[in-house]
Amino acid sequence: MLNSMKTYWKTADWIKRISCCLTFFVIFGIFFEGLVLESFNLSMLGYQGFYVLYVVAMICSFFTKKWQLILLAIIGPIAAWAFTIGLAEVLWHYLLKWFDIDISYR
Fold first, then answer.
1. Is 4 helix (H, G, I), strand (E, B) or coil?
2. What is the distance between the alpha carbons of residues 57 and 49, in angstroms, rounded to a whole number?
């Protein structure tokens, strides 16, 4: 699998590389900001910044004309956002229940 990813990266043109990098950054940036930085009350890009990157990643993926990349660029950040919100709610509930730490003001 790693060899096929290396081959894909070497044979990809610049728009595919940009689209892959933007999609990767948006998906993992949502996880990092939503679960790590928000607990310290910090913000890297905020909602608007991730939305702009999401739209740019979608546009770049449409230019590649690869349906797998288009689906990943459209559905991946939405699923990451939903998973992050759900996990944050579960963490908030158990922090309050088990450790008496209330982070609801954030």
1. helix
2. 12
Tens-place pLDDT, residues 88-104: 888 888 878 888 877 66
- With respect to residue 3, please indicate whether it lies within any of the assigned structural domains: no
Q: How far is CA 88 from the centre of its chain?
A: 15
Residues 6+ apart with CB under 8 A from 29: 44, 45, 50, 53
Q: How far does CA 34 lie from the centroid of its chain?
A: 9
Domain encompassing residue 86: 15-99
Structure tokens at 96: 């309050």
pLDDT in tens, 65-76: 888 889 999 999
Query: Against a cut of 0.70, is the pTM above it?
Result: yes
Domain assignment of residue 22, yes or no: yes
CA distance 57 to 77: 10
Contacts of 17 (CB under 8 A, 6+ apart): 9
**Number of domains, the chain:** 1
- Asked whether residue 106 is assigned to any structural domain, the reply reads no
The residue type of 72 is L
